Amino acid sequence: MTTPDPATEAAARPATPVVGWRALARALRPRATPAQALTGVLCVMLGFAIAVQVRQTDTASLSTMRESELVSLLDQTTRQADELQDQVSELERTQQELQSGSTSREAALDAATRSAAAQGILSGRLPAEGPGVTVTVRDPEAQVSALTLLNLLEELRNAGAEAVQLNDRRLTASSYVLGTDAGIEVDGSLLSPPYRWIAIGDPDTIATALAIPGGALAKVQIDGGQTAVQTQDLVQVTATRTVPEPEHATPRSPEQG
Q1: I need a labelling partner for 90 at 20 to 30 A (CA). Which of 76, 83, 188, 235 fits?
Q2: What is the DSSP pairing of strand 163-166 with strand 169-171?
Q3: Is the predicted pLDDT of residue 46 greater than 70, yes or no?
Q4: Between 48 and 95, where is the model more confident?
Q5: How many other CB atoms sit within 10 Å of the CB of residue 74?
Q6: Which regions of 45-113 does DSSP assign to beta strands (E)?
Q7: What is the SS3 assignment for 254?
Q8: Which CATH number is 127-237 given?
Q9: What angle do CA 41, 46, 48 make, to 5 degrees?
């Protein structure tokens, strides 16, 4: 009986299947083909080209630009600067116009306010106060004439009185003094002595004018009355009057010349 050879038996034995981790590793091992290798190289080259292009774009400077490009850029920059300067100039003109218009409106309003106040005082519509004099005329015998009182009013006006009050009556340019059988009538109202005048103006000028020999105060004394003049730093004209609307006169526009 012949003894079997171990090497011969091993060669004749079927191969044992590969199982476990060795099989899994072999299945997952990449199998590169020439096509896949070429695709990978192309992807790497494309990525490198994109990176270079981006870097060149980000780091571009004037030194890398051509002369024509520099001229075009300079021209564009100049136009933009001119446009911005025009906008600045326009905004400055607008600001000046607004300031000028506001100043003009404020000046016109201020002038109109002052004019209205002056007209209100001169016409008697508004009360007034300021330096002036008080003149008291006593006439116990009722001998002072209306003409003497009218002369006193004219003396006050000529001396620069801006607002005048006689007793409780406001006197203006249209006021009148009239002697009647019932007594002294001023603007339609009867007044009784003593007559107390309040006049706003320069106190010294008014007092000096009234003291002129042969003037209004001298005439009061000739008529039989008594006078007293007091200068004051502040007097108040509280009486006012209603100014009637013009019946026939109308304002003339500046365009009519």
Answers
A1: 76
A2: antiparallel
A3: no
A4: 95
A5: 11
A6: none
A7: helix
A8: 3.30.70.1880
A9: 95
